[in-house]
Every structure is written in C-alpha cells, then in structure tokens.
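User: I'm writing a short methods note and want a consistent example. For DUF2383 domain-containing protein, I'll paste the sequence; you return only the structure tokens, no commentary, since I'll be parsing the reply automatically.
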Amino acid sequence: MSTQHTQLTALQRALRDLHKQLIHLETQYFGAVGSPLEHLQLITNHPHFAWLQKLSGLMAQLDERLEDEAEIGAEEAKAFRQSLEMLIGPCEEGDQAFRAKYNALLHDGPELVMAHGAIRKVLATIG
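Assistant:
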C-alpha cells in the first residue's frame, strides 16, 4: 500500500468524524427529526442541510478512489487535500458560503473543533 493510500485512508476516517460532528450540530439547530430514516431524508433533501452536500460529495469521491485498486499518486492525493482546503480552509479562493457556515459551527462544538484539528493534522502529511 502506498504512502498516499495510507494518507487518504487516514483522511477518510477523519472526514467521517468531521461530517458526523457537523450533522450533529446542524441537527441540534434544526430541531426534532423523528426516526433515523426521517433524519437521513432531512440530511439528504432539506435545504437546511444542503450546504453539507459539497463535503458529502468529496467524501464519496474519496471513498470511490480508495476502493479502486489502482495506485494513488502524490498529485492525486494533493488534489484531494486542495479540494478539502477549498471548503474548510485555509485556501483563500475557497467556497466562502460553505466556509461561513463551517466557521460559525466551529464556535459551537468542541467535538467539531477536535475533528477539525484531526483533519488539519492529516492534511499536513499530504503533498
């Protein structure tokens, strides 16, 4: 297994935790959601959660790439890092709408801050 595969696998795990924390906080702001199925439907379809779809999509791309048997090169790993940095920072040209919501939530959840720190640590090892 290549260094890049190992790095992206660590990123995948850290992203899952970050995503989980974001959904948890956004669900608290949204209010009662009912059953787990209703919760899933809200997360995937309701406008309140729509901003998270960019992160979900990046996670899906990463999952698919890690399932592929082909070797992952340094440039490809770096591209995943840059895509994520466009969302959560520090890339200046990033998605400002996503970043505004993300940064606001960082002030509301210590678990999210820890997950963000874990992501930053993994990103520092890539490229």
